[in-house]
Amino acid sequence: xxxxxxxxxxxxxxxxxxxxxxxxxxxxxxxxxxxxxxxxxxxxxxxxxxxxxxxxxxxxxxxxxxxxxxxxxxxxxxxxxxxxxxxxxxxxxxxxxxxxxxxxxxxxxxxxxxxxxxxxxxxxxxxxxxxxxxxxxxxxxxxxxxxxxxxxxxxxxxxxxxxxxxxxxxxxxxxxxxxxxxxxxxxxxxxxxxxxxxxxxxxxxxxxxxxxxxxxxxxxxxxxxxxxxxxxxxxxxxxxxxxxxxxxxxxxxxxxxxxxxxxxxxxxxxxxxxxxxxxxxxxxxxxxxxxxxxxxxxxxxxxxxxxxxxxxxxxxxxxxxxxxxxxxxxxxxxxxxxxxxxxxxxx
Length: 347
Description:
This protein has helices at residues 29-47, 62-71, 90-99, 109-116, 118-127, 176-190, 238-242, 244-250, 264-278, 313-320, 325-338, and strands at residues 9-15, 51-57, 75-78, 135-138, 154-158, 172-173, 194-198, 202-211, 215-217, 221-225, 252-256, 283-292, 297-304. It is α+β, with helices and mostly antiparallel strands. It is built from eleven helices and 13 strands. The chain is 35% helix and 22% strand.
């Protein structure tokens, strides 16, 4: 049996409330949706012949340490999206895995820190002359001041939260009064600083990226909304991403980007590989971009460890490239086991 085919002990990290049962049939549709990623990953790893064991984490690491020490997993498959109910604390759990000299899947702690901090990542991208919308940060507990250097319309979101938390049609504002209202909303609802960007009218594109030293990209994916109300911006609000009934009502679809200008797909792939490298990412990621009406390519975000559900964008774009779901997870496992963390250099 080859190394790629051998049975592995895989410890699957997830929130303690998201450990799925062996069968989802008797659950409500809402609960099925909540558990889908964790269920899909566990089922696929077991189908591949691995011994995949879930571990639920929320605010304690003692059980994780015990599992690593006693069971000695070959790899930890990281599905965590928060720790201590803080979205950016998942990077510290990955840092703990490195301290334990435990191989893991997905992005390394440094890449997670740089990419999850939307403000810092935009500063880095700007330094490297990678185009991103002009922006400003409005910290919590600071008196509102007009943003004279930015041009309306503006897009307001959390500087740290992901999964479209706090994003709705009201996130795009066209005057100072609405801007102040939305900034205050973000401060109160997300308990984070507000990131204000110039809104870029255009096509919303997603690109899956994988690799450690050698980086590959998957086909360009596009968000389309057939029934956008007149005058409303095309943005991936929380309801657009997570509400099936709303998706059906508006005709929300994602799929291969069609009719791109000549050479654009190659250009997009090149830019995404650059982003992945300058943010020091590893494992896998999804890059969100806007292609403006005048053909300019703007980077919106780099998302470490994106949704791995079967049938979601990352898995579907891999499938378009000829990589089925089980093979995709196998590659993620292999990248995790091959990642050269600093502890590997120690005697």
